[in-house]
Amino acid sequence: MWENLSNYKIVLGSQSPRRVELLRGLDLTFEQRVLPDLDETYPDGLPLEEIPRYIAARKAEAYFPSLEPNTLLITADTLVFLKGQVLGKPKDGEEAKAMLHRLAGERHYVTTGVAICVAGKVHSFMDTATVDFLPLTGEEISYYVERYSPLDKAGAYGIQEWVGYAGISRIEGSFYTVMGLPVHLINKYLKTL
């Protein structure tokens, strides 16, 4: 498998342990590289659904100076959208709790944008899943925030953690998109190289 990629050094540009786990699931050999303080801002007026794709491409550009010519780079960004508002990573536990109170009992959308760079060219795409949360009590929200690590997650939750088991009643789309990497689309693209 993956003979078509044998001439490439694959690099995952991400600090996310979940993205490492998901990319490993494709049986790819890759190296994880982390650049500190990547710019995750976006221009005003950018359509909400385009923001994760835009940020993923910006992250890729930050890696360009350190890439060897035969490198295949993968970067990604995930955001949660609720009623036309962006929910990124919470800055502290109180903001995490506030986000989860807003999400409780609501339907929201999770979009992950991906950028794949090969030979200096960037191919980007995105995938969106719809997620329905059951109502959550303040006690349940506090339990999750205090026992897990929601500060590095868009919308202050990980679908693969306790709150996902207890609170998500329905998902339309890819579970892995919500987790942070639409591996089905990455697999599809990499097979074309």
TrEMBL record:
Provide the species name.
Answer: Porphyromonas catoniae ATCC 51270
Q: What is its EC number?
A: 3.6.1.9
Q: Which SUPFAM superfamilies match?
A: ITPase-like
Q: Where is this site: Important for substrate specificity?
A: R18, T78, Q160
One Pfam annotation reads: Maf
Where it mainly occurs, coarsely classed, is cytoplasm
A single GO BP annotation from the record? nucleotide metabolic process
- GO MF term list: dTTP diphosphatase activity; UTP diphosphatase activity
Identify which cofactors the protein needs according to its UniProt entry. a divalent metal cation
NCBIfam families found in the cross-reference section: maf
Q: Where in the cell is it found?
A: Cytoplasm
Alphabetically list the UniProt keywords.
Cytoplasm, Hydrolase, Nucleotide metabolism
Annotated active site: D77
Q: Which reaction does it catalyse?
A: UTP + H2O = UMP + diphosphate + H(+); dTTP + H2O = dTMP + diphosphate + H(+)
Q: Any transmembrane segments, and where?
A: none
- UniProt function note: Nucleoside triphosphate pyrophosphatase that hydrolyzes dTTP and UTP. May have a dual role in cell division arrest and in preventing the incorporation of modified nucleotides into cellular nucleic acids.
Q: What name is this protein filed under? A: dTTP/UTP pyrophosphatase
Which family is this protein grouped under?
Belongs to the Maf family. YhdE subfamily.
